[in-house]
Amino acid sequence: MVKVIASSVRKGNVLEVDGHLCSVLSAESFFPGKGTPTTQIDMRRIADGVKVTQRYKTTEQVERAYVEDRDFTYLYQDGEQYVFMNPETYDQLPVDGDVVGDLAAYLQEGMKVTLSVFDDRAVAIELPQRVTLEVVETEPVTKGQTASSSYKPAILSNGVRSAVPPHIGVGTRIVVMTADGSYVERAKD
């Protein structure tokens, strides 16, 4: 176990809290004008899946568990589990749907991901920052509309809703951030 300050904790880290391993779902720091800055950490206990929220002073020490980050390739979904393969040993590792969470929409066959492994169990997943998807539904292109900051709603090939610039039409491949599904650029392929 390694001690780190609470403000350095990020989504996907694994902490030891009261003797339980917890996967961090979100970590947010608050800096009020008056008073002590705090960090609120939402976690899921790995053993039983119970969600826990803790608030720490930003400089307070927390125990970060040693997990091994390994590269895996996504293969397929099998019911509630997602199956990944170690590209070096070809061993397959099933991962529960609650570990993958909302990121499941961005998984693509053959995608390289990083799994945090503890006792031969995946406890957290990290996807590439950006993925390329196709726009399957959006409003038609309006002639004469400038590429200003007015974005229009779109539904992508993975079912996620996003906002795209006015010049993007149905069938266009775009690059989006996996963290929040936001538009980055038109795909260059």
How would you characterize the overall build of this protein?
By secondary structure, the protein is mainly beta. The chain is 2% helix and 52% strand. It has one helix spanning 97-100; strands spanning 2-5, 14-17, 20-30, 38-45, 51-57, 61-64, 68-78, 81-85, 92-96, 112-118, 121-126, 130-138, 152-156, 161-164, 173-177, 183-186. The strands form 3 sheets. It has a 6-stranded antiparallel sheet with strand order 1-6-2-3-4-5, with no helix packed on it. It starts with a strand and ends with a strand. The model has no long low-confidence stretch (mean pLDDT 87). GO terms for molecular function: translation elongation factor activity. It is found in: Cytoplasm. Residues 69-123 form the Translation elongation factor P/YeiP central domain.
